[in-house]
């Protein structure tokens, strides 16, 4: 494992609470992935960076079996605690050195993971090795609504948009895939969903370094961003303890491995 790649051990206890979908949305996201990849009851599927299984567990009802790989023992333990009858099997491992045989899987799922992997080109080569001929990579991520002012204020205050990613740039995800020889298949598929978030709760989640992008910030950088965000909240919200709607988009793009 590259020393720069990010491991989510510290987030295992709160990951589902902070990154999980609202009730019923996990099943919708799984169905979207299955449609995007043409997955069915005979499909064998790998998820890299499987985490707590927020994708793998509901997706397992659409396929023959799911194999999940993750660097975090704590995240995998959380997945196993939630697993019931789903055919989801996991192993601790590095996605740049998959402990799996070549030409094994009909599809690989990668959800919001490549920006956390320093040597993501090697991870892409390993994924290609593990796919059967004609297999696909389903690259998925969640996008914040452009009207999310708190996210924008925080990003501008901390320079998050200019801060280099650990791995693949999220703004250049499609260009990066093409650059490494992956073939785009079809149009991007997406679904929207809504949650609620109180401005003060968002502020405190950042103060508590809940989000992985804050783990690399110095205390000074964090405090400067918090100060500007708090000033914005005080100026624009009468009662910042009250939740407000937040709209998000879950997107899936399908690729075929380099020839």
What features would you describe in this structure?
The chain is of the alpha/beta class and 259 residues long. The protein has a domain of 171 residues: Rossmann fold. 34% of the residues lie in helices and 25% in strands. It contains 9 helices and 7 strands. Helix 4 links the parallel strand 2 and strand 3. The longest helix is centred in the C-terminal third of the chain and has 18 residues. The protein is globular, with a radius of gyration of 19 Å. The two termini are 26 Å apart. The model has no long low-confidence stretch (mean pLDDT 94).
What does the secondary structure layout of this molecule look like, with pairings?
Blueprint: H1 15-19, H2 25-37, E1 44-48, H3 56-59, E2 65-70, H4 73-82, E3 88-92, E4 105-111, H5 120-130, E5 131-144, H6 149-158, H7 173-179, E6 183-197, H8 199-207, H9 219-236, E7 244-256
Parallel strand pairs: 1-2, 1-4, 2-3, 4-5
Antiparallel strand pairs: 5-7, 6-7
Helix pairs in contact: 6-9, 8-9
How would you concisely characterize the structure shown here?
The protein has about 260 residues and is α/β, with parallel strands linked by helices. The protein is built from 9 helices and 7 strands; from the N terminus they run H-H-E-H-E-H-E-E-H-E-H-H-E-H-H-E.
CATH architecture of the domain at 9-144 and 165-192 and 250-256: 3-Layer(aba) Sandwich
Helical/strand content category: alpha/beta
Shape: globular
CATH class of the domain at 9-144 and 165-192 and 250-256: Alpha Beta
Helix content class: 25-40%
| Secondary structure tally, helices | 9
Q: How many E-type strands?
A: 7
Mean pLDDT: 94
CATH topology annotation of the domain at 9-144 and 165-192 and 250-256 = Rossmann fold
Rounded radius of gyration (Å):
19 Å
């Amino acid at each position: 494992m590259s020393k720069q790649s990010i491991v989510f051990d510290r987030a295992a206890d709160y990951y589902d609470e902070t990154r999980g979908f609202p009730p019923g949305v996990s099943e919708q996201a799984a169905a979207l992935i299955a449609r995007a990849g043409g997955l069915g009851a005979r499909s064998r599927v790998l998820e890299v960076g499987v985490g707590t299984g927020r994708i793998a567990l509901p997706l397992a009802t659409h396929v023959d079996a799911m194999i999940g790989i993750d660097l975090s023992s704590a995240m995998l333990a959380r997945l196993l605690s939630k697993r019931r009858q789903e055919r989801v099997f996991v192993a601790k491992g590095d996605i740049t050195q998959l402990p799996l045989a070549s030409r094994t899987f009909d599809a690989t799922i990668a959800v919001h993971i490549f920006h956390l992997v320093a040597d993501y080109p090697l991870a892409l080569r390993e994924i290609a090795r593990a796919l059967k001929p004609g297999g696909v990579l389903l690259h998925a991520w969640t996008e914040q609504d452009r009207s999310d002012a708190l996210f924008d204020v925080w990003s501008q205050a901390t320079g998050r948009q200019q801060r280099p990613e650990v791995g693949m740039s999220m703004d250049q995800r499609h260009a990066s895939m093409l650059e490494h020889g992956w073939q785009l298949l079809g149009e991007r598929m997406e679904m929207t969903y809504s949650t609620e978030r109180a401005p003060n709760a968002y502020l405190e989640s950042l103060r508590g370094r809940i989000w992985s992008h804050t783990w690399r910030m110095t205390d000074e950088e964090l405090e400067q961003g918090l100060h500007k965000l708090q000033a914005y909240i005080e100026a624009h919200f009468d009662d910042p303890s009250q939740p407000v709607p937040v709209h998000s988009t879950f997107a899936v793009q399908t690729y075929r491995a380099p020839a």
